[in-house]
Here is the input.
Amino acid sequence: MKKFVITTMAFLLMVTGISVANADDGLEISGHINTGAAYQFQTNKPASTAGGALLQEQIFTPRMNPEKRNSFGFYLYDVEVDIAKSFGEDIRLRTDLDFGRFNSYSPSNRKSFEIEQAYVAFDLFGAEILVGRFNVPMGIESVDINDNYLPMHSLLYTALKPHNLTGIKAYYKFTDMLDMHLWVVNNLRDSISFNNNAPAFGGRIGFDFGRVQAGISGAASPEVHTDRYGDWSYLGDLDVNFAINDKLSIGAEGLFRQDSAPKGLKDNRYYAGLTNIHYVFSDVWDGTIQYAYVNDKGGQASLNATGASQMHPWGVGTSATGGTSQYHEMGAGVTYHITDGAKIQGMYRFDYIIPDKKVFKDNGMAHSLVANFAYEF
Here is the structure.
């Protein structure tokens, strides 16, 4: 690991030097850092162990002792270095390198290093073709938390949707009002499968009507039989953003996911939605309120536990959200823009969990406070 870090830093220094020495060589380096402090309180009810923004983001781990209700920590979410290189007008390379540290509360799914994106892109008959690993165009939340209004993702993102996938993607812009993404990948888990004979696929159709942008996304993958023909996972997503004026905007997203189970078992189904209201108070202050809802209808009945999720911490053998339940997330946040590229994000979120009453009698609650410093370079 030490050799890898030294080699990586030497490479970054080398390419940075090349970029400075040759301003027109087509090389661009950018990135960001997210760091801050977080506090989470959960009630002593068993259902509360599934709630909380910091748990779902995998900054804090699930608590095993019901009496341990409080968690606090200074975290290093990630340090990302993005390297892009163009060769003329038609061929481009890009890689996004994410660094973290587990013992500094970096999300455990990111470990110490992750290649978020790495692809070669070229133009073909007016379409942009990407081959490699790329961010999935789906919904209103971005992979990088500094690109979102609130510094932590909702449960729709952390548990129900794919984030980064390996395969091929095509993008075509028909007009200024209509575009389309289509992709074929290994699977929605983005993991290695040694008996893969059926890839996953999906796409998004985007609409831009000026003050209103919308998208319709879908995905399908034979996750149940380890990427072989059989029972499939299906995912549909609708997102819309309406800019009422230069200061006020409203966003919304609706999602349906089904993880089909083998014969004799019950399918998992999820119904979820999100809405937020964003207001710009001044050149340096803006605020957001957000509500998200997830209804896990299948619980632990389906073998396809982690179908389209890359982040949830419960592991194989459970549903994507941890069990049959309903989740209500109510959050509010403010952002102060210190200077170009630098901002402080504050957030409070209340989670209310209604479990399967056959499993847990009492509802669960969790409170999360986050102060995130984001700097983009």
In short: The CA atoms of residues 3 and 246 lie 49 Å apart. The chain has a mean pLDDT of 84. The chain has three helices and 16 strands.
